[in-house]
């Protein structure tokens, strides 16, 4: 039998490796900017076109490379960061694997121009699909400029998986923010289609946060600082007012490397218990400085996951530091961390699991929340028969004229419970409708129809309002302008990062000054649903925003209208993000409670 195992050609092996390292334009941005930081750059410039799909350029003023180093940099496992296995446990650089440039060069057209300060001429290299096409001397500035064109040009299937420009720009912005926060002492610039979105001079961390997230954060930051023999913590936590529905403004760095850790994020979240809603997440930018021998960064090619040799001890320090920060700002009772110098030792010596520790330390939070819900319900008891007083004189929903299947006729009594649920009887069951979830489904399908027909009912504002946005959100608005107009928005640019809103969708009028920014936040919240097309993400975001205030008393006519419109939908059973809109209680189930 002939031998069937053979070595893959380098070009194919590099493409396979690129699948782990280069997932989208943001992956390229991350790797190139990290290389610039490791090269000692004091200024890093990022230039993009088509959200990085067609053009990414990173220019730095770092140390540059020699001719030989430049040629070796595109080879797999070629690195200047480590020499032996033991070096993996003393790493303080951003990169170390030696895979980034080789992976990028395998799936794009790459040009490198670099010069060391000690040399009069630099070198230029052109690479396509791992093949060096040209290398020659060139006059250039000290440092390195790497240009990546036509990402995934030789792998059309991968290119087809890329999302719309606003989505890809959102991922790039996240990577840019992380590096800009981790290195506030360096200058960063982000340019997209010749428009400067961010131009950040070297500054203090607090100034960098305000420059990235807006002036609203200027007085919303509380310093956080703690130091033990294990770890040193510095940074800022946001006041409770900055809490958001999504965790996109939580930044945790270990030795200046951005990491994802739900466990440590929960440590900060717990410090805010009782200060923010249970479904909100606090803002924080925290830096952990720890001896590299206590961590392992060689866990995943993206290097955003690390392992601690004593994660529970780190958890304790982070949680205590966040509590102290809030206490120093008179926002919560402070923990005197210095009062118990054996805190870390106690946690190290305990044998309980991570989940047990959380339950024991924070179980009272669930009990307090239950008490709060009970008090809330005591003040919102429905009147007998589900009939409410002070009902609006005009119906919130127009009653559909055509008959709908499987819904009660208007003669059948329906009633409302706690201003949130609609009960109506069927032949052999009772249906319970969550009116907010139902409203979200109704609006979602309505907005989808409007986006398809390009015709929406807009409400003109008597007094147009201005909305200040971040540069990335401002750019996103104009990327989505056609879709936003189809939904009923009428927008005009009003300065560099401000939008003038002259009309809004009629279905979600009210609080117009916040509507656009909240829509963008909801739109970004739906980005994890990568299978959804752009129209569905926008419609889902606006429906979520439009249904947010639907816990209210309804007239009998309005309740019937909600039910009829819900069951006229194509998918009445679920909201766009999969939550149920109603459930059905069968007569047989009810009878079992009475032993019939």
Please tell me about this protein's structure:
- This protein has 18 helices and 22 strands.
- By secondary structure, the protein is an alpha+beta fold.
- It folds into three domains: 191 residues, Histidine kinase-like ATPase, C-terminal domain (Heat Shock Protein 90, 2-Layer Sandwich); 161 residues, Ribosomal Protein S5, domain 2 (2-Layer Sandwich); 170 residues, MutL, C-terminal domain, regulatory subdomain (Ribosomal Protein S8, Chain: A, domain 1, 2-Layer Sandwich), CATH 3.30.1370.
- The strands form five sheets. Strands 5-4-3-6-2-1-7-8 form an eight-stranded mixed beta sheet. A five-stranded mixed beta sheet has the order 9-10-13-11-12.
- Helix 1 packs across helix 4, helix 2 runs parallel beside helix 6 and helix 8 packs parallel to helix 9.
- The longest helix has 25 residues.
- It starts with 9 loop residues before the first helix and ends with a helix.
- About 11% of the residues have low confidence.
List the SSEs and their pairings.
Blueprint: H1 10-21, H2 25-38, E1 43-49, E2 55-60, H3 67-72, H4 100-106, E3 109-115, E4 122-128, E5 131-138, E6 143-149, H5 156-160, H6 165-182, E7 187-192, E8 195-200, H7 205-213, E9 221-227, E10 231-238, E11 250-254, E12 257-259, H8 262-271, E13 284-290, E14 295-296, E15 307-308, H9 311-328, H10 343-349, H11 354-378, E16 415-417, E17 421-425, E18 429-434, H12 435-453, E19 458-468, H13 471-479, H14 481-487, E20 490-493, E21 498-505, H15 512-525, H16 534-546, H17 556-567, E22 582-586, H18 587-592
Parallel strand pairs: 1-7, 11-13
Antiparallel strand pairs: 1-2, 2-6, 3-4, 3-6, 4-5, 7-8, 9-10, 10-13, 11-12, 14-15, 16-17, 17-18, 18-22, 19-21, 20-21
Helix pairs in contact: 1-4, 2-6, 6-13, 8-9, 9-10, 12-16, 12-17, 15-16
């Amino acid at each position: 039998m002939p031998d069937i195992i053979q070595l893959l050609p380098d070009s194919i092996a590099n493409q396979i490796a690129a699948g782990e390292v280069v997932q989208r334009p943001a992956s390229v941005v991350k790797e190139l900017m990290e290389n610039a930081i490791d090269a000692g750059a004091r200024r890093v410039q990022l230039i993009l076109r088509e959200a990085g799909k067609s053009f990414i350029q990173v220019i730095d003023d770092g140390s540059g490379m020699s001719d030989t180093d430049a040629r070796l940099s595109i080879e797999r496992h070629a690195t200047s960061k480590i020499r032996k296995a033991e070096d993996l446990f003393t790493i303080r650089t951003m990169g170390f694997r030696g895979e980034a440039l080789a992976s990028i060069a395998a799936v794009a057209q790459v040009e490198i121009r670099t010069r060391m300060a000690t040399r009069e001429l630099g070198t230029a290299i052109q690479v396509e699909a791992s093949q060096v096409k040209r290398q020659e001397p060139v006059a250039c500035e000290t440092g390195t400029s790497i240009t990546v064109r036509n990402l995934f040009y030789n792998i059309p299937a991968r290119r087809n998986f890329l999302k719309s420009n606003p989505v890809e720009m959102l991922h790039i912005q996240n990577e840019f923010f992380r590096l800009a926060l981790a290195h506030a002492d360096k200058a960063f610039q982000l340019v997209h289609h010749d428009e400067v979105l961010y131009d950040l001079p070297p500054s203090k961390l607090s100034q960098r946060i305000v420059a990235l997230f807006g002036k609203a954060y200027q007085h919303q930051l509380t310093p956080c600082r703690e130091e033990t023999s294990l770890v040193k913590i510095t940074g800022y936590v946001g006041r409770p007012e900055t809490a958001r529905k999504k965790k996109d403004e939580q930044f945790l760095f270990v030795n200046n490397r951005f990491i994802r850790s739900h466990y440590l994020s929960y440590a900060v979240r717990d410090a805010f218990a009782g200060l923010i809603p249970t479904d909100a997440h606090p803002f924080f930018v925290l830096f952990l400085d720890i001896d590299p021998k206590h961590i392992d960064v060689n866990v995943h090619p993206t290097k955003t996951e690390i392992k601690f040799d004593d994660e529970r001890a780190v958890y304790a320090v982070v949680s205590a530091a966040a509590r102290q920060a809030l206490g120093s700002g008179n926002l919560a009772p402070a923990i005197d961390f210095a009062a118990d110098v054996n805190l870390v030792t106690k946690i190290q010596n305990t044998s309980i699991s991570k989940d047990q520790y959380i339950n024991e330390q924070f179980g009272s939070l669930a009990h307090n929340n239950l008490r709060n819900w009970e008090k809330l319900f005591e003040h919102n008891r429905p009147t007998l028969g589900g009939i409410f007083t002070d009902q609006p004189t005009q119906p919130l929903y127009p009653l559909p004229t055509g008959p709908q299947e499987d819904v009660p006729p208007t003669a059948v009594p329906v009633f409302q419970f706690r201003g949130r649920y609609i009960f109506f009887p069927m032949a052999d069951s009772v249906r319970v409708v969550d009116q907010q979830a139902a409203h979200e489904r109704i609006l979602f399908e309505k907005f989808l129809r409007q986006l398809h027909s390009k015709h929406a009912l807009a409400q003109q504002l008597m007094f147009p309002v201005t909305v200040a946005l971040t540069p990335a959100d401002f750019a996103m608005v104009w990327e989505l302008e056609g879709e936003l107009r189809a939904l009923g928005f009428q927008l005009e640019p009003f300065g560099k990062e401000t939008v003038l809103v002259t009309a809004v969708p009629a279905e979600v009028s009210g609080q117009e000054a916040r509507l656009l920014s909240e829509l963008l936040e909801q739109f970004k919240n739906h980005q994890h649903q990568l299978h959804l097309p752009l129209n569905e993400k926008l419609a889902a975001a606006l429906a979520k925003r439009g249904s947010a205030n639907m816990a209210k008393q309804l007239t009998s006519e309005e309740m019937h209208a909600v039910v009829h419109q819900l069951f006229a939908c194509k998918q009445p059973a679920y909201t766009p993000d999969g939550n149920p809109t109603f459930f059905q209680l069968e007569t047989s189930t009810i009878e079992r409670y009475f032993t019939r």
